[in-house]
Design a protein that fits this description.
Elements lengths: L1 H4 L2 E7 L4 H14 L6 E5 L2 E8 L2 E8 L4 E6 L3 H8 L4 E4 L11 H6 L16 E4 L8 E8 L4 E8 L2 E8 L3 E3 L3
Length: about 180
């Protein structure tokens, strides 16, 4: 388990429409080459979307990032080689041939994993929004949703108090 702690999520670019095929090919390669201790998880992020066709509503699963597959792995020569040379893979996302791991924030935002974020604020505290559309706004914490890692704050916009729901990592407590 200590090895898995050193792993990170990487984004792999694939031919569009080949995401699921790349996932299954990669899973087979991991099994065949016994790399379960280096490549831990492969995801093709999907979301449920309401589609209307011929006047009928239907829930369908759509790829969130067409042309991309997410891989949680230890980056080393063996794992890089296996992923890079899987049929349908065009390369890792990153400058040149150097793959760049996703940050914890990106992993949480993309819904890949729920990495617990330690919060430093309580209900009633004044916080500053540090990321997003409301960056640099101050607000008061009204409610904390620990299970969803979200917080509801009230900010003053255009002379009105407006409730806003944000991720924990988007706010920071202002020192007392």
């Amino acid at each position: 388990m200590a090895e898995k702690d050193k792993s990170a999520w990487y984004v792999v670019h694939t031919y569009s429409g080949y995401e699921n095929k790349v996932k299954s090919n990669l899973e087979k390669a991991i099994e065949n080459q016994n790399l379960q201790d280096q490549i831990f998880e492969i995801k093709v992020p999907m979301e449920e979307v309401l589609e209307v066709k011929n006047g009928k509503k239907k829930l369908v699963m759509k790829k969130v990032f067409p042309g991309y597959v997410m891989v949680k792995m230890m980056m080393n020569d063996d794992s890089w080689y296996v992923v890079r040379n899987t049929r349908g893979v065009t390369g890792f996302v990153g400058p040149g041939s150097k793959p760049v791991p996703l940050s914890d924030e990106e992993v949480v935002t993309m819904g890949m994993e729920r990495i617990p974020i330690k919060r430093t604020f309580e209900v009633g505290d004044t916080v500053r929004v540090i990321k997003g559309a409301l960056e640099n706004f101050n607000g008061i914490v009204e409610e904390v949703f620990e299970d969803r890692q979200k917080v509801r704050i009230t900010v003053s916009m255009f002379g009105r108090e407006t409730p806003v729901e944000l991720e924990f990592f988007q706010v920071k407590k202002i020192k007392d």
